[in-house]
Amino acid sequence: MSTTWNSIPVPRPLQQLFDSVPLVTYDANALPTRAQSNTLCQLPTLYVFASERDARLGLPSYNPSCLKWQTFLKLAGVEFRIVPSTNHASPTGALPFLLPVRTSPTTTAAAAASSAPIPASRLQRYALDHGSRPPPPNAKTLRLDAYQALLDVPIRNAWLHTLYLEPENSPLLEKLYVTWASSSGWVQGTIRHQLGRAAEGEILKTSSSLSAAGAGELDEDAVYSAARDALNALASLLAESETGWFFSATAPTLFDASVFAYTHLMLQVLSEADGEDAARLGVLVGQAGSGELRSHQQRIYQMLWPSQIWSEGESQADKTQ
Amino acid sequence: MPDSMLIDSGPQLNDQLLTPAAISKVEVLGAKNTRRSLLDHIFKPLVDKSNTDATIGQLLERINHASAKLQRFDIFREEGYGVFISGANNGQPSDKTEIDVSFRVREKSRLVFKAGTDFGNAEGSAYTNAEVRNVFGGAESLSVNASTGTRTRSAYNAVFSTPVNGNPDLRLAVEALRSSTQKPWASHEEQLAGGNLRLAWATKHAESHSLSYSGIWRQLTGLAPGASPTVRADAGDSLKSSITHTFTRDRRDRAVLPQEGYLLRTMSELAGWGPLQGDVSFYKSEVEVAGAMPAFPSGLANGIPVTVGGGLRLGMLVPLARGFSFTGPAQPSRINDRFQLGGPTDVRGFKLGGLGPHDGGDAVGGDVFAAGGVNMLLPLPRTGPASPLRIQLFANGGRLVALKNQSKATEVSSESLGMDSRTVVNGLKSAVWELANGLPSLAAGVGLVYAHPVARFELNFSLPIVQRVGEQGRKGLQVGVGINFL
């Protein structure tokens, strides 16, 4: 325990004594090994869910909300790197968040405060301020809100169900969110249980189709048919567009990034899983409308991760046949 | 406790300590809830066949020994405890003096509730405690604690402890714990859940050992807004599975205000290696020596108790490869495994965790440290040696150094952070070398010490003399409360 008497003014001779010490000051201590790669980089850092390898290559995150902001920052032309992280590292308790470059390398608390983390809610502002090609603003219409709601409720619920509650996808869930956290069976089991409970709670909170299977029970068919309707609605919205981007914007907007975050993961990540139930969301995306969502996903992917196309293109082609 | 022991020896026994004798009967009165088997462990040796050619003197010594052992179980009250010896009156003629021994005991209450405040090192807390003594009649104890403090937001633990083989100096304990502790010097909160199994034994001459296995799930969470990238990188879960040995030899006359004697303490921990598994793998070792002696043994200071003391602490953490490998890639240490140094109870004149590597405002800890201090305790004017107050002059300092990866140019872009054994050895070598690079970070000062039986309180005025950029010295007053000071 230590106590300060900051409120009491320091007498002048004492202040002079305080100012004269320390008599000798050496250079700062070097940081530990684990810290070195985190503090040497001169780029802002986006903390996301990703594997070590994907993060190093800057590949898409496997978490929809992280991928949305990763995509948007890239669309806006912000230079950044991504590091794999966990919700515990975030100031809001959820990823992603962005840590700006520290203005000065000195080890003072003031310097640390000047580079406070930017939560997801303020990333749009950040991208507009720091990006080299700020994307057009979202259309401010009631329609946008309605379509955003399709992403936030039925499509999100279907994603949560597929990844967290679908038994065929449990190896995928393990790989993405569980084994990464700890090698211990006890820790993994607890995390798996917590994830499943949280996903179920989230779906039940927003699901209006409780009655079919009774209160507190998930109606799986209702979840997926709601998602199918939502995807079809998005596909027909896209079909109306003259530019190929939502709401006929001249360039992809935040809404395009939000849609891409789900469609990309449903098409790509789920395609790795075995089993019909596991991959059914990807099939729904492919079938929505007349393939508008798939081509939308591919256009954004080619635009932002061009070097990844030829290596993955072939396997993708195999799967679509 | 020997004060309470009463040997009712008749005058004839004093003269005849060398006469052959035998114990014909041992009687324990008042141990209502204590198992016979526990008492047998203590008293069987008294009536053993090997006692056939014992003298009265030897028997008295054994009785004393058994009595002391019985009291170390800590299940009997001090008051009402007594040993009574009388000549046996069994009517049979014998060539020996036959005696009967009677132990009169009063059991302590089996269920105890306590609530109060506690001072640990650099922390004050309030606790409630429930203890069940002598649970199964074999001096087992079950203790359940809940506490909350200035830094520990909440802590719960339950310990079941039992003597092994009826020996009060060898105890086996199993503990389950859960806690949540604020670590403001590194902008985070650490939550722990886990358990440990500990075997503790005491030898003569105030030495004690403990060997324990612990499995603890650590969660680094609740980061402050200004947390540094180093702390953020270590956020999340890790399981530590480790074996720890500690050894303590405390020959100081009084732990909170030593006038004479020394303390030697070592701690060694092996985590994650071999069958231990878990997420972290390292060997960690710490040594502490401290001592005190009268400054003027020949009475130069007219019997005024001036003492000088000193202490030295050393520690090292060696990252190891997981599994049974000696050469495989070793992961660098995490913030919750590294050492912290500085604060009112170790290197005074620095803030908590004020020494060593800092990333922004965060003390991120180091892998190798050395810290030492000297002090002189002077009595206040017009107080005697028995007064718990002293004036203290001190100077202390230390170095806390992190293990650096020498090949850092390639490391940033390479596959992972793993280091091979050569990198680890080179890193440790240069870290140890770095300890002696320049003067250690130093502070000196003067203060007042109050030695309460429970804890030692210090109020010091100190100034940092040598410091490194980023290290957080403390100019002016600093309050320290604790039991174990450098």
Short summary:
The complex is a heterodimer of chains A (321) and B (486). Chain A has 321 residues and is mostly helical.
Topology, pairings included?
The complex is a heterodimer of chains A (321) and B (486).
Chain A: H1 12-20, E1 24-26, H2 33-40, E2 45-48, H3 52-57, H4 64-75, E3 81-84, E4 97-99, H5 109-114, E5 118-119, H6 123-130, H7 142-165, H8 170-178, H9 185-206, H10 220-240, H11 254-269, H12 276-287, H13 292-304, H14 309-320
Parallel strand pairs in A: 2-3
Antiparallel strand pairs in A: 2-4, 4-5
Chain B: H1 11-15, E1 21-29, H2 36-43, H3 56-72, E2 82-87, E3 97-104, E4 111-120, E5 123-133, E6 141-149, E7 152-164, E8 167-183, E9 188-203, E10 207-221, H4 229-234, E11 236-250, E12 261-271, E13 282-294, E14 307-319, E15 358-359, E16 362-363, E17 368-379, E18 389-401, H5 408-411, H6 421-435, E19 441-451, E20 456-468, E21 476-482
Parallel strand pairs in B: 1-3
Antiparallel strand pairs in B: 2-3, 4-5, 5-6, 6-7, 7-8, 8-9, 9-10, 10-11, 11-12, 12-13, 13-14, 14-17, 15-16, 17-18, 18-19, 19-20, 20-21
Keywords:
heterodimer; A: mainly alpha; four-stranded mixed sheet; 55% helix; disordered C terminus; B: 486 residues; mainly beta; Porin; three-stranded mixed sheet; 6 helices; 11% helix; disordered N terminus; Metaxin_GST (chain A); Mito_Protein_Transport_Metaxin (chain A)
Low-confidence runs of chain B: 1-6, 408-415
What is the C-alpha radius of gyration of chain A, as a whole number of Å? 24 Å
Q: What general form of chain B does the structure show?
A: globular
Counted beta strands of chain A: 5
Q: How many distinct helices of chain B?
A: 6
Question: CATH superfamily name of the largest domain in chain B?
Answer: membrane protein fhac: a member of the omp85/tpsb transporter family
Give average pLDDT of chain B, whole number. 86
Q: What overall form of chain A do the CA principal axes indicate?
A: globular
Approximately how much helix is present in the residues of chain B? 10-25%
Strand segment tally of chain B: 21
Global Rg of chain B: 27 Å
Question: Would you list the SSEs of chain B in sequence order as H and E?
Answer: HEHHEEEEEEEEEHEEEEEEEEHHEEE
H/E series of chain A, N to C? Answer: HEHEHHEEHEHHHHHHHHH
| Main β-sheet, spatial strand arrangement of chain B | 4-5-6-7-8-9-10-11-12-13-14-17-18-19-20-21
Q: Helix count of chain A?
A: 14
Strand portion of chain A? under 5%
For the record, give the distance between the C-alpha atoms at the N and C termini of chain A, rounded to a whole number: 69 Å
> Which residue ranges of chain A are poorly predicted, with pLDDT under 50 across at least 5 consecutive positions?
313-321
The main β sheet of chain B shows up as: 16 strands, antiparallel
